[in-house]
Design goal:
CATH class of one domain: Alpha Beta
CATH topology of one domain: Kinesin
Structural class: alpha+beta
Helix content: 25-40%
Distance between the termini: 26 Å
Largest sheet: 8 strands, mixed
Shape: globular
Radius of gyration: 20 Å
Number of strands: 15
Order of helices and strands: HEEEHHEHHEEEEEEHEEEEHHHHEH
Oligomer: single chain
CATH superfamily of one domain: Kinesin motor domain
């Protein structure tokens, strides 16, 4: 998704170097740089939030999660490229007025789609949510009361990597899950720097757990369920943006945060590069290199179905980061999982 030039970029005289060619291709043209990239879909600056929801396949992921699959949507890109806006719409933290319906992000639209589908599937469907952030390589629960404390990350043969003692909250309406999203987002670490007034300083993972199919305890079935329950997940990952400390003017704590963010994104990129190789040529995939790659292990190379939304700026000043994001996304596109 290519965001529009910002007012400050236009005032500064930045040129637009990224153009959508239609047909899922995007062209980068600048001095000494001419490159074309192909993706499943490309959304230019004029695309509405609704168009991104309908054209990116998120609606299908909602249905697959209800059918018992493990689905993930993650937004990746430079700081200030529109990841949080794409997933959540404009940040209205501390403001009383609700977001205009047309500006709602992929998450709120998915919630509405999920509840709409759940009504047709009857009362046997149970929905719950958990919300975590990875801040400076610590996993913190955004929904539990009190100040966020670090939670341990464990491994089991059946679950893979999981977070111990995380809070999972049941919900039955769009209002309830939206309130959980807002409550958690307000506790998430953000800071202002020269490229972004609301820069996310952590990776955030909101996971919807779906459990459908009531278990029967009728004696005729020997006390066992006639229809085993189907358990699926729909996980939204808002990655903190990659950034160059020189350009953001970060120092002190902000600089430590930036280094941790970049290190975990590098680990993610390394895993994606190895997963993009043919199965026969793969070496060990180093998921244990960061908390982020551990939590995304199943989504990336395991049994999940994953959508990556690469967010980029069209500005000439962001050219190197934009090219980096496009190469990263091209590698991710070659990864195949076995749902």
């Amino acid at each position: 998704r290519v965001r529009p030039l910002t007012c400050s970029e236009a005032r500064r005289g930045d040129r637009q170097v990224v153009h959508s060619l239609g047909d899922g291709t995007v062209h980068v043209s600048a001095a000494r740089h001419e490159a074309t990239f192909g993706f499943s879909a490309v959304f230019d600056a004029g695309a509405s939030q609704e168009a991104v929801f309908e054209g990116s396949g998120v609606r299908q992921l909602v249905e697959l999660a209800l059918d018992g699959f493990s689905c993930t949507v993650f937004a990746f890109g430079q700081t200030g490229s529109g990841k949080t806006y794409t997933l959540m719409g404009p940040l209205t933290q501390g403001e009383m007025q609700p977001v205009a319906p047309g500006l709602l992000g992929l998450m709120q639209r998915s919630f509405a789609c999920l509840l709409e589908q759940s009504r047709s599937r009857g009362p046997a469907l149970v929905l719950s949510a958990s919300y975590l952030e990875i801040y400076n390589e610590q996993v913190r629960d955004l929904l539990s009361p009190g100040p966020p404390c670090a939670l341990p990350l464990r491994w089991s043969k059946t679950q893979g990597f999981y977070v111990e003692n995380q809070l999972c909250v049941d919900f039955e309406s769009v209002e309830a899950i939206t309130e959980l999203l807002l409550r958690g987002s307000q506790r998430r670490r953000t800071s202002a720097h020269t490229l972004n007034r609301h820069s996310s300083r952590s990776h955030a993972l909101l996971t919807i757990h779906t459990c459908s199919g009531a278990v029967s305890t009728h004696p005729a079935f020997g006390g066992r369920g006639a229809h085993p329950s189907k358990q699926g997940t729909l996980c939204f990952v808002d990655l903190a943006g990659s950034e160059r400390v020189k350009e953001t003017g970060s120092s002190g704590e902000l600089c430590v945060e930036a280094n941790n963010i970049n290190r975990s994104l590098l680990a993610l990129g390394h895993c994606i590069s190895l997963l993009a190789k043919p199965r026969g040529k793969r070496t060990h995939i180093p998921y244990r290199d960061s908390k982020l790659t551990r939590l995304l292990a199943r989504s990336l190379g395991g049994s999940g179905i994953t959508l990556m939304v690469a967010c980029i700026s069209p500005s000439s000043r962001c050219l190197s980061e934009t090219l980096s994001t496009l190469h990263y996304a091209s590698r991710a596109r070659r990864v195949t999982s076995r749902p």
